[in-house]
Design brief:
Helix content of chain B: over 70%
Shape of chain A: globular
Number of strands of chain A: 10
Number of helices of chain A: 11
Number of domains of chain A: 1
Number of helices of chain B: 12
CATH topology of chain A: Rossmann fold
Order of helices and strands of chain A: HEEEHEEHEHHHHEHEHEEHH
Shape of chain B: globular
CATH architecture of chain B: Orthogonal Bundle
Order of helices and strands of chain B: HHHHHHHHHHHH
Largest sheet of chain A: 6 strands, mixed
Strand order of the largest sheet of chain A: 6-7-8-3-9-10
CATH topology of chain B: MetI-like fold
CATH architecture of chain A: 3-Layer(aba) Sandwich
Structural class of chain B: mainly alpha
Distance between the termini of chain B: 36 Å
Radius of gyration of chain A: 18 Å
Oligomer: heterodimer
Strand content of chain B: under 5%
């Protein structure tokens, strides 16, 4: 177990995965994508971000792990904090940040490698070369992603040979192998069939006991089913943020009401 | 109209078929084990082979690959990563210009820089000239292969905490490796038969030599010398040499086809 120490260290009790946006604005070149977002996303819960296409919810998600930085000409104002520390802090290593904040994408993207190698990818960069420790992490991550029983006999076969839903769970297991505090999901089930979607939602319900989950979704039923908090984005603004039940049953804002009742978007 | 495209398609491949048939008819009878293992005989004696030219061609390909592959792959990686910088635009444009440069010009330049200063022809100068021809080919195929690696794979590695440079190597380069290998083999096949860059550099050698500092024999040069010579025996050997050269190139081309089949198949989109 000693080999696991470098990873386990990061799961300290004071690091519980709180995300806080403070007057956060974001630009792609001259185009403003986010306007003065202020919100505190509670730890160890599922928060859904909803809104029409182009409303900025994915931009917000990708700002948290600074994946937007790859795009030239971007800039931001305000701040985003993870457990009280700015994610833009010069002293914070973006590599370490991305290990604490895992991400799953809309289109499942396992590497063209074996299932085992996919899961072991993250821990390996932490310098974890110990075979027994790696085996343990791979098994634990696949169990947490509810995939172990389906793939335990073929860990060495290509991840690309699995079904779409299984590949997406490989991607979730791959993110979990880094022991993140926060898991970002960008429309993780939008290309999956209903039963695979249900499995992913059940999985999120299990995982929220251990980490903070933020899910961007176009599917309002999914947000209502799977999340405890919901934020409604519209044209780069956070229109409303609150407990999911309140947002869906008695929205404070007219625009939220119009969106969730299907009058636009 | 459709009928004409059938005709055009057949005409497009007809020259290759005719050349292969002709080469086999003319060259196969002169091929023997001795052709691969023996040195050229003096004029008047029959028999003999092109062992020195075959080995010389392989050495020249080796030197050219040592120069052309690392520079070409490195430059292609740079172009794919830094798509829109002024340097990338310049390199991309100059690569295309170099690609279209007549091979005789490359040969003369290699003579100017590598032969004249040292005072003698050398295998090294020939290898450099061929390597220079490989660079733009490998650069552009590497860039193209890297660009078809889905962004989602790159993002997956970055989101796992991989540093940018390590993502480029571990994920992007590895995923594109089969395609890059194909491009490299195509470039090798392309330069293997080049004659003009060698005329002023490797120049050819009637004797056995594997030294990089000495003139070296090469199949295209030997074919040129024998085909333009006055003896029937030389003409026979030239046909056999041409058959061997085209076989080497065909084998490399077929290998390039197989290299495209990677173990886990094509990456997902």
């Amino acid at each position: 177990m000693t080999a696991l120490a470098p990873i386990a260290e990061r799961v300290r009790p004071n690091l519980i995965g709180t995300i806080e946006a403070k007057d956060f604005s974001f630009w792609y070149g001259k185009k403003q994508a986010l306007r003065n977002i202020t919100m505190a996303i509670p730890p160890r819960a599922v928060t859904a971000l909803i809104g029409p296409s182009g409303c900025g919810k994915s931009t917000f998600l990708r700002s948290i792990n600074r994946l937007n930085e790859l795009i030239p000409g971007i800039r931001h104002e305000g701040d985003l904090c993870l457990d009280g520390n700015s994610v833009f802090d010069q002293s914070l290593d973006v590599v370490a940040l991305r290990q604490r904040v895992g991400m799953v994408f809309q289109r499942w993207n396992p590497f063209p490698k074996s299932i085992y190698e996919n899961i072991a990818y993250g821990p390996r960069i932490n310098g974890l070369g110990n075979q027994a420790a790696l085996d343990e992490i791979v098994e634990r991550s696949l169990r947490r992603a509810a995939l172990w029983d389906e793939v335990k006999d073929r860990l060495r076969s290509s991840a690309l040979s699995l079904s779409g839903g299984q590949q997406q769970r490989v991607c979730i297991a791959r993110a979990l192998a880094n022991q993140p505090e926060v898991l970002l999901l960008d429309e993780p089930a939008s290309a999956l069939d209903p039963s695979s979607t249900q499995r992913i939602e059940e999985l999120l319900y299990e995982l929220k006991r251990e980490l903070t989950i933020i899910i961007v979704t176009h599917n309002l039923q999914q947000a209502a089913r799977a999340s405890e908090f919901t934020g409604f984005f519209f044209t780069g603004e956070l229109v409303e943020f609150g407990p999911t039940e309140q947002v869906f049953t008695s929205p404070r804002e007219e625009r939220t009401d119009a969106y969730i009742t299907g009058r636009f978007g | 109209m459709i009928g004409l495209t059938y005709l055009a398609a057949i005409l497009a491949t007809l020259p290759l078929v005719l050349i292969l048939v002709h080469l086999i008819a003319k060259g196969a009878s002169s091929l023997s084990l001795a052709f691969f293992t023996h040195m050229p005989r003096p004029v008047g004696e029959s028999g003999g082979g092109m062992a020195n030219a075959i080995v010389g061609t392989l050495i020249l390909i080796g030197v050219a690959s040592l120069i052309g592959l690392p520079i070409g792959i490195g430059a292609g990686l740079h172009l794919a990563e830094k798509r829109t910088t002024p340097l990338a635009y310049t390199v991309r444009f100059l690569s295309d210009v170099l690609n279209g440069l007549p091979s005789i010009v490359i040969g003369i330049s290699a003579w100017e820089f590598l032969v004249r200063p040292v005072g003698h022809f050398s295998a090294l100068a020939g290898g450099v000239a061929l390597g220079t021809m490989m660079v733009p080919l490998v650069t552009r195929t590497t860039e193209e292969m890297l660009l078809v690696v889905p962004t989602s794979l790159r993002e997956a590695a970055l989101a796992l905490g991989y540093p940018k440079w390590r993502t480029s190597i571990a994920v992007v380069l590895r995923t594109a490796l089969a395609g890059i290998a194909t491009g490299a083999l195509v470039a090798v096949a392309r330069i293997a038969g080049e004659t003009a860059p060698l005329l002023f550099t490797a120049i050819g050698n009637q004797f056995w030599s594997t030294s990089l500092r000495e003139p070296i024999a090469a199949l295209p040069l030997q074919i040129f010398a024998y085909a333009t010579g006055p003896y029937d025996e030389w003409h026979r050997l030239a046909w056999a040499g041409a058959l061997v050269l085209i076989t080497i190139i065909l084998i490399i081309s077929i290998a390039a086809r197989f290299a495209t089949r990677s173990r886990f198949g094509a990456p997902v989109d």
